[in-house]
Amino acid sequence: MGRVRSQDVRERSDVAVVVAARAGDPEALEHLVRGCLPLVYNIVGRALDGHSDVDDVVQDTMLRALDGLSGLEDPERFRSWLVAIAVRQVRDRWRGRQARPQAEVPDEAVQEVAPEADFADLAILRLALSGQRREAVEATRWLEDEEREVLSLWWLEAAGELTRAELAAACELAPQHAAVRVQRVKERLESARAVVRALATSPRCAELQAQLTSWDGRPAARWRKRLARHVRDCPRCLFNTSELVPTEGLLGGFALVPVPIGLAGLLLAKSMPSASAAMGGTAHASGSVGRVGQLLGKLAAKPVAALTAGAAVLAGGGALYAYTRSDAPVRPHAAQVQNQAPVSPTASSVPPTPTTSATPTPTAASTLVGRHALRAVDQSGRYVSEAGNLGVLGPVAATSSGLAKQEATFRFVTGLADSHCYSIKDATGRYLRHYAFRIRLDANDGSAVFQKDATFCARPGSADGSVSLESYNYPGRYLRYRDNLQLWVDPTQNTAAFRASRSFTVVAPWT
């Protein structure tokens, strides 16, 4: 395929290393585990769409690989052999779920999907994706289960982590037949990307909106087909998708989603007997299992270090965002927050500006809970407001219409993602959130990504009595207005103008 693989994969085991690992060499075994676990986790995670079975299937795959290592006849085929094991385990899990009597499946399990059970969420959060890369990941939710198997392999091929030969072998297909399957999945993914873009456009196409009256908000293949037909036939929706880059162009050097904390430890506990047996049960093997344990511990503690260094510089945003944990951004320690001076907005003496309401502090979410308006500290008479589905800084006065006043009044509630922060709702129940760093108002879809996108932490503003709202999942980015008065979540800059643009006075609601 001519693609360059990630550093971790370029250093993958060659034939000599596989042979040495099969003979019980601890260094070789460590090298195998280092290269295998992240690859297997990404294949299984995307194929099962982050289902709660992912960790179990990853463990089963690794255990089977360790058990069968001694019987691998051709060490040159180790990688394709391992990927094929992962694919078979995914298929077995699908068959097991389909064969399970319906009575055993609780209704709530069918109706509700836990936010953390979505691999798209994990990829977006852990790799800090934005723009078209984020849209591409979100589009994977609209595919059928059986399509995700090929998708998970082709995604890694496009990212340079697998070859077409390895993909075909894993699917147990001839290369030409694998190419047909891949092309079909690519076409469906592209149509799903068009749907994602059309749904995110503001204001949304009226004809498209009319088709959504019976949609429950959950991505599904049936709805992808229906909505894709509209997008294809609607000049407006089609125009909005005209700038989409082919998915292959987005995936070059795409980082693997880091292995979650805890999975490595669980794998170690189950793999010790298998590893020992695969190496002949020698004392030498026992030592190597200990080394594997140390390695797995490192992978769990620092999942990004070996996998995403230098690969999270995102197209369009150019931002590098590092995590010290795999499942959450770095948050300030409570003691650090408590050391910040509380802010106390003062009442304005100029009518008809609303009088000041609650005193915001960065330490207790309860102090801002309630209905408020947010007045820009350096834009007289302008407030955080909404224009359709987008956030803007709009003019509001006593003579303004009731609608304008309603659009500049929000209810602060305990943060969806963090009880020490806030989420902000408008009169219709939509949440203020960022999407591709643009401030929007959307209904809560229940996903972990949405909950984090819609959570902001109060920090002291640039003026006495003002407050700034820091993004929960992008620390260092603040809600602010740009020169065109659009609201964005932008990275902090050490200038007086930037500090003023992210500072607001919390005042009484207009309505």
Residue share in β-strands: 5-15%
List low-confidence stretches. Answer: 1-13, 102-117, 271-276, 278-293, 295-366
Q: What is the helix tally?
A: 21
Structural class given helices, strands, pairing? alpha+beta
**Strands, total number:** 12
Taking the alpha carbons of the first and last residues, their distance comes to: 61 Å
Global geometry: elongated
Helix content: 40-55%
Strand order of the largest sheet: 5-4-1-12-9-8
Question: Mean of the pLDDT scores?
Answer: 73
Largest sheet: 6 strands, antiparallel
Nearest-angstrom radius of gyration? 26 Å
Compact description:
By secondary structure, this protein is an alpha+beta fold.
Descriptive terms for the model:
511 residues, two-stranded antiparallel sheet, six-stranded antiparallel β-sheet, elongated, 45% helix, alpha+beta
Question: What would you note in describing this structure?
Answer:
This protein is α+β, with helices and mostly antiparallel strands and 511 residues long. It is 45% helix and 12% strand. It contains 21 helices and twelve strands. It has helices spanning 7-10, 15-22, 26-47, 54-68, 78-99, 107-111, 119-126, 131-139, 145-158, 164-171, 175-200, 206-211, 221-233, 235-240, 247-251, 263-278, 283-301, 334-338, 402-407, 448-453, 496-501; strands at residues 370-376, 382-387, 390-395, 410-414, 422-425, 431-435, 438-442, 456-460, 466-471, 477-481, 487-491, 504-507. The strands form four sheets. The chain has a six-stranded antiparallel beta sheet, with no helix packed on it. A two-stranded antiparallel sheet has the order 2-3. A hairpin with a 7-residue loop joins strand 4 (410-414) and strand 5 (422-425). Helix 3 (26-47) packs across helix 5 and helix 9 (145-158) packs antiparallel against helix 10 (164-171). It is elongated, with a radius of gyration of 26 Å. The chain starts with 6 loop residues before the first helix and ends with a strand.
